[in-house]
Structures are given as structure tokens and as C-alpha cells.
Design a protein that fits this description.
Helices cover 35% and strands 21% of the residues. The protein is α/β, with parallel strands linked by helices.
């Protein structure tokens, strides 16, 4: 494919040079590559134009005017995110069109739904690919860890092409609001879009709920546009799987009413196409019924019943029957960092959970409080240079439901951890059931050392992450690994 083929819509009179690759990382550039100079939050790609040319770039793409003189064409675009998505889709020959594509959006539940749906599809004999918060997997094999929930467009299209080449049948993607705003999934024709819920999160990026919902809604606007497309509509049905019990879900249902998108609803409280009943939960999992058929998940909490319903409904859109879907739900043993139990035979419970918002922390307590027989010990902190309004809320929640709270560092980044602790303590007025232990390893060890028989230890905030971002830089750190070490040391 030539420069003219890929960029003719942006600039005329481009040379008919063969493009060997496309990238926004100058270190990846080889002879025949096109380099996208992207101005990011911390790194400006324009500073690496000379390096890209030296490595063999045959063209530079930018939405800014390039003042320096270059020996290769500079292609000016009005929106570089949009251009990357469009060009990558062309360069890799629309690989998503070879797969059944399911996109999952919403504040909470995306990762668990992705794992549950993957388990269902594998039980049905399919070869699913999953791109999500924890890692990227093709046919069950991890191909890389996940720097972003939804990869940037150039990487995303390359990996979809890889999945298609490996004969994957279905692509399950967590689609973040950032990805929708930054046009990373533009050009991908989704077969099914799932909406989970909308809760407080990412307001540092979106500023308010109106903008946050508008970002999520874009996935369904794209779905509707594809359904209305003369080119696409005859080939594919488009499905929306929506949480009937969520207020914003109801707004999406109304938006898609009487359109070519087929809506499947799920819920527990309100009448829906996929409903759960007879829910019996304990600290080892949940038994319930889906439309009258017995089901079991090894995940904890009522919120995971919603996730199971969403995965089941999505499986239906991929032609998997209910009986097979129920088998697939039960086959999943757990999700990394989502109320993940650390069990080395000790007489108390330890859970690692990716609860970094107040709503998620409440959900963790809702999961375990009904089965409390001893004390609840919580280890948590809040991320630096992020939404500060959630800090006192999380402090108040932890103090209310815990017998002991160990406040510690999360990912403070460049922010003074003491400022974060002060914000958390604002929500813990008149409470004395806490300690501040800045070192996260020491805090985890203290929690494990303190725990007695039947106690519940919740290590919240980082979940599956295997790193910590400190003012001094990024280090390896895993809550699960540290919990294992502490149990071996003290039990």
C-alpha cells in the first residue's frame, strides 16, 4: 500500500512509495515506515521527528505546522487521533471485519464481563481474542500486558490483524471512555455493544457526568450509524446489550428505541430479557437462576450477577445458547485483581481488589459484610494527580465498614503522599480505627500480621497492577505477591 493510497484524502501529489509500517514510536521506525508525531500528555512526538527520519521514515504525519525542514513529506491532518484510526484500518485491511466484535463500556464490570464472555465463547468451542484492562489475549494466550484498557489505534488495528491471522473467531474489547473520546476505535464496526453502568470516575478527564455519559454513548451512536449504513446493514445485525437497572442504561434504551439496533436488556430489579432470580451468595461464589435455569459463578457479589447476565446476553448475540453460556460462566475460576482471593490455607480471608473509587469500595464491602464473622481490615490509598473529590468519600466508606483501616500509598505519582492522606482523613472525622503506614508493603504485612481466624482482609486500589508509580519513578509492586509473602511469613 502506497502513501497515496493511505493519505490521499489528506494531501494530494504524494509519491507512490510503498509503506512498510505505521507507528507513533520513533524507536519502532524502520525503512519505509510512516511516523505519526503525536503530542501526548508527557511526551511530544514532534521532538522525535529527526530520529524517526534517521531510522527510515518516509513521511511524517502531524496536526501541527512543522517549522523544521525535513527531507521527507509532512502530511498535515486536522485531527491526528482520527487520522491514525482511519489509516490503521486501511493499512491492515479492516481486520475487525473478519471477526465478530463485542465492545464493552461503562464504569464498572468491563473486565469481569470480558473474562466471563471469553469463558463462554471458549466453552462453545470458539477462539476468542480479548483486549482489556489487565492484558491482551488471543485464543487464551497472553500476547502482552495492557498499558491502556483500549490500545491506541495503530496498536489496536495491528493486534486485531494478528488475531485474524491466528484464526480467532470473536473479538471482545473493553472500550474506555478515553478511547471513545480519542477515536481509538473509529472504523471498527461492532456487532455488539454492552453497557454496564455509569458511576463516578474519570471526572478529572471528563469534568462532569454529562460529558462522561456522552463519551460512553458514542459507542452506541457508532453502532446505530453502522446499522443504518447501506453498506453494512445487509451483512450484519447490530446488537446493544444494556443494563435495565441502571438509569443511564435506560436512557440508552430510549435512544435506541425503534431503530435498526436490536436491544437486549439484562437486570435483577426491573423486567428484562435476561433476568436473575433466587440469588444465593456466599464468600465463595453465587448461585442464581438466569431466566429460570440454575447458574453458578465463582466470582463474589451481586454485581457479578449483573456481569454474568451481560456476558450471557452478549453470548446470545454471538449465537451461543443459554445452556452453553451457563456452563461457560461456571468454568471461570476468577478474575485477576477483582475480589481475587489469596488462599494459602490460612484461617482468614484475603482479597485483592481493583477498588480505586468509592463506588467500587462500597461494592467490595457489600460483597463481604453479609458474611462477616470476625473483623474487616482494609488496606487502601488513593492515586496522586487524579480526582481528589473521591478521597474523603473513600476514607468515610473504609472507616464505616472496617474494624481497622491501614491508609497507605497507592500510585502517588508526582503528588506528595501526605497531601493524599490528609484528603482521605477529611472523610474519617471522629474515627480512630485507622493507621497511616506510607509504605504499602509494610501496610500489607501489618494487615496480614494482625488478622485472626475468620477475619477478612481487603487490599484495595491496585488489583491486578504489578507496579507502583512513586514520585521517584515506577517500580515493580504487586499486592497479590506481597500478600502471599506476608501470609508465608506470619501464618
Amino acid at each position: 500500500m502506497t502513501l497515496k493510497d493511505l493519505f490521499g484524502q489528506y494531501q494530494q501529489n504524494l509519491p507512490a512509495m510503498e509503506v512498510k509500517g505505521i507507528t507513533q514510536n520513533s524507536a519502532e521506525v524502520l525503512a519505509g515506515f510512516v511516523f505519526f508525531a503525536v503530542k501526548g500528555h508527557s511526551v511530544d512526538g514532534h521532538n522525535f521527528i529527526d530520529a524517526a527520519i534517521k531510522n527510515g521514515a518516509i513521511a511524517i504525519v502531524s496536526e501541527e505546522e512543522i517549522k523544521q525542514t525535513t527531507s521527507v513529506p509532512v502530511i498535515k491532518v486536522s485531527n491526528i487521533d482520527e487520522a491514525m484510526a482511519n489509516v490503521a484500518c486501511k493499512f491492515y485491511n479492516n481486520p475487525a471485519g473478519k471477526l465478530g466484535v463485542v465492545g464493552i463500556t461503562g464504569t464498572k464490570g468491563k473486565t469481569s464481563i470480558a473474562y466471563l464472555l471469553e469463558s463462554i465463547l471458549m466453552t462453545a468451542g470458539r477462539r476468542p481474542t480479548v483486549f482489556g484492562t489487565i492484558n491482551y489475549r488471543i485464543n487464551g494466550e497472553v500476547i502482552s500486558q495492557a498499558p491502556n484498557t483500549t490500545p491506541v489505534a495503530l496498536t489496536l488495528q495491528k493486534m486485531i490483524a494478528q488475531a485474524a491471522a491466528q484464526k480467532s473467531t470473536d473479538l471482545v474489547m473493553e472500550v474506555s471512555s478515553h478511547a471513545l473520546e480519542l477515536k481509538r476505535v473509529d472504523g471498527i464496526a461492532f456487532d455488539t455493544a454492552i453497557f454496564t453502568n455509569l458511576q463516578r470516575d474519570h471526572l478529572d478527564f471528563h469534568h462532569n457526568f454529562k460529558n462522561y455519559f456522552a463519551a460512553k454513548k458514542k459507542l452506541f451512536e457508532n453502532l446505530l450509524n453502522d446499522a443504518n449504513s447501506v453498506q453494512n446493514a445487509p451483512q450484519k445485525n447490530r446488537f446493544a446489550v444494556i443494563n435495565e437497572d441502571d438509569h443511564y442504561g435506560q436512557r440508552l434504551i430510549a435512544f435506541l428505541k425503534d431503530t435498526k439496533v436490536k436491544v437486549l436488556t439484562y437486570g435483577i430489579e426491573n423486567k428484562a430479557d435476561f433476568m436473575a432470580s433466587d440469588i444465593k451468595a456466599d464468600i465463595n461464589g453465587v448461585d442464581f437462576k438466569i431466566n429460570g435455569l440454575p447458574a453458578h459463578i465463582n466470582l463474589l457479589g451481586k454485581h457479578n450477577v449483573y456481569n454474568a447476565l451481560a456476558a450471557t446476553a452478549a453470548a446470545k448475540t454471538r449465537n451461543v445458547n443459554l445452556e452453553t453460556a451457563i456452563k461457560g460462566l461456571a468454568a471461570l475460576t476468577g478474575v485477576p485483581g477483582r475480589m481475587e482471593r489469596v488462599n494459602l490455607g490460612q484461617k482468614f480471608y484475603v482479597f485483592v481488589d481493583f477498588a480505586y473509587t468509592n463506588e467500587a469500595l462500597l461494592r467490595a464491602y457489600d460483597t463481604v459484610v453479609p458474611f462477616k464473622k470476625g473483623k474487616i481490615i482494609t488496606v487502601f490509598g488513593c492515586g496522586g494527580q487524579r480526582d481528589t473529590t473521591k478521597r474523603p468519600l473513600m476514607g468515610a466508606t473504609a472507616a464505616k465498614y472496617s474494624d481497622l483501616v491501614l491508609i497507605t500509598k497507592d500510585n502517588p505519582r508526582k503528588e506528595d503522599p501526605n497531601n493524599i492522606f490528609i484528603d482521605i482523613l477529611k472523610g474519617m472525622a471522629w474515627q480512630d480505627n485507622f493507621k497511616i503506614i506510607p509504605d504499602r508493603r509494610q501496610a500489607i504485612f501489618e494487615a496480614i500480621k494482625t488478622a485472626k481466624q475468620q477475619d477478612i482482609v481487603i487490599i484495595a486500589g491496585k488489583g491486578h497492577e504489578d507496579y507502583q508509580i512513586l514520585p521517584s519513578g515506577k517500580i515493580h509492586f504487586s499486592d497479590k505477591e506481597e500478600a502471599v509473602k506476608a501470609i508465608k511469613n506470619y501464618v
